[in-house]
Amino acid sequence: MTFYLVTFCCAFAALGSFLFGYDSGVIFSSIEQEAFLRQFGSPTLSDAVAGGIISSYIGGAIVGSVVASYISDYYGRRMVLFIGGLLATLGAGLQGGAVNIAMLIAGRCIAGLAIGQMSATIPVYCSEIAPPQTRGMLASMQQWMIGLGFVVAQWVGYGCSLRGGVFSWRFPLSFQAVPAIILTCGIWFLPESPRWLMEKGREEEGRSVFARLYLNQSATNNQLLEHEIFQIQESLASEKQSAVRSWRHLLLFPRWRHRILLACGLQVFTQCSGTNVISNYGPILFQTLGFRASTSLMIIGLWGALAQFWYTVFMFFIDKVGRRKLLIPSLLGMGVALCIEATLARYIDFSDPNANQHALRAGIAMFFVFSFFFTALGMISWVYQTEIFPTPLRARGSSMATATNWSVTLIFTQCSPIALTNIGSNYFYCFAAFNWAAMVVVWAFYPETAGCSLEGVEEVFTTQFDDGHSERSFVDVNTPVAIRPRSQIRHKGLHPLSMHPTYDTVSIGSSHSGSGDEIGTKEV
C-alpha cells in the first residue's frame, strides 16, 4: 500500500510535467492553423513573430527555474507547484483568448515561468519522498509525463484541426488550464517533503510523513525507517556546519562546483543529443531528408507515441540496472543512429521516386532507434540532478541544472533552423559527435547513485570526491541495520566509477523479507 501511495503522490505532482510536454508541443501545431494566421492578419508568421512566440516561453522558463529555488527553500516544495499551477492557468487563459500577438506572447511567457518553476521542483519532490529502491523510477516520472503531454498535444492539435475555425487553435491552447487547475486544487492534499520539513526543524512533521509513506501495514520495517531518519538527521547536522549562503559560494567552492558541473553537464548532454531538434523541427527536418509533409507529420506522431512506450518500459529498469549502465549505451546508441542517418541522407536522395526503398526504410528506422536510446538519458537527466545534492542545496542545484536545460534549448531553438537550411542532414553529424563526447565524460566522471539513499549519495561524494577517498560501504535493505559510527564501519575498496558495487552488510537479527515496502539499500 505504501508503494502505491508514494507513486500516486509523485504522479499527481508530475501533472506539472505533463503541462511541460503539452505546452512545448501544442504551440507548433497551433501556429500553423489557417484560422490562427487569419486571426492575426497575415498569411504567414514572420520569423521574428514566430521566434518571439517560442522564445518568450523558453525565456520565462529560464527565469522560473531560477526563482523556484527561493520559493522551494523558504516555503516548501508544494508551494512552488501551487504557484506554478496558478501561473499555468493564467497563461493558458491568455493564450486561448489572445486577440493579438502581444497577448499571446504574454501568455506564453507566463506559462513558461510556471513550467520553469515546476520542472525544477517536481524531480526534487519525487526524489525526497521516494524510497531508495524506487527513487529512480518515481523521479523519472517527470520525463514520462513530459512525453505523455507531448503526445497528447500532438493528437489534440490534429483532432481540433479537423474542425477548423478558431476552435482549431483556441481549444488546444486553452486545454492546458485543465491539468493546471487540477494540480492547483489538489497539491495541498499531498504531503510536504519530509526532508524539507526536517531541514526546517519540523522533525515531528517529517517523521509523521515518513511513517505514512514508508511504514508497511505491520510496521515490521520500523527499524529501517528509524535508520533512514537517523541518516537524514546526521546529514543535516553536518551540512549546517558548511552551509552555502549564496550562488557565488555554490559556484566557487570546489566541493559544490563539482556537483553543479555534473548536474548541468547532464542537462547539456540531453539537449545536445538532438532530441529537441527532431521533435520540434521534425516536419522541416524530414522534408530536408526528402520526405513529403504528410509523411513527416505521420513519422513525428509515431515517433512520439513509441517514445512514450519506451519511457514506460525503462522506468522499471532505471533502479535495477543503475544510472551509468543505462547512460553509456544510451549515448553510444544515439550517436550511431544519427551518424547512420546523416550518411544515408548524404549519399541517397530520398526525394527521388526511384531511390532505394531499403535505404528509405532504414532512414526512417534510425529515428525510431534514436528514440529508443534517448529514453535512458531523458529520464536520468532529471533524476541525477536531484540525487547528488544535500537537502539544503537540492532545490538550488536542481534549479541551476534546469535553467541550463532551458538555456541550451533556447540556443538550439534559434540556431537549428539556420543549421538545417545551410548544412541540412549534415547537422546530424554534430549531434553524433556530441553524444560520443558525452559518453566519454559520463564514463570518466559520473559516479553511480542507484541503490543509495539520498544521504548515502552525499556520503559517496564526501568520501570519494570531496575528501579524495575512494571507499564506501552499503547496508542491505533486507537486513535490519545496526546504526554504528562511521569510523567503525568496515569499508571495501570501491572505485566511485565502478559499474558493479560490492556490498558490505552490517546486520543484526535475521534477514527481513522484502515486500516492496522496505526503505531500500542504504549507504552509511
TrEMBL record:
Give the record's membrane topology. Answer: Multi-pass membrane protein
**Alphabetical list of Pfam families matching this protein:** Sugar_tr
Primary place of residence? membrane
For this protein, the record's Gene3D superfamilies field holds: MFS general substrate transporter like domains
Q: Which family does the UniProt entry place this protein in?
A: Belongs to the major facilitator superfamily. Sugar transporter (TC 2.A.1.1) family.
Which residue ranges have biased composition labelled Polar residues?
505-514
What organism, scientifically named, is this protein from?
Penicillium freii
InterPro entries registered for this protein in UniProt: MFS_dom, MFS_sugar_transport-like, MFS_Sugar_Transporters, MFS_trans_sf, Sugar/inositol_transpt, Sugar_transporter_CS
Keywords, A to Z, come to: Membrane, Transmembrane, Transmembrane helix, Transport
- According to the record, the residues making up region (Disordered) are 505-524
Q: How is this protein named in the record?
A: Major facilitator superfamily (MFS) profile domain-containing protein
Any one GO CC term of the record: membrane
* MF terms (GO), sorted A to Z: carbohydrate:proton symporter activity
Transmembrane segments annotated in the record for this chain? 45-68, 80-99, 138-157, 169-190, 298-318, 330-348, 360-384, 427-446
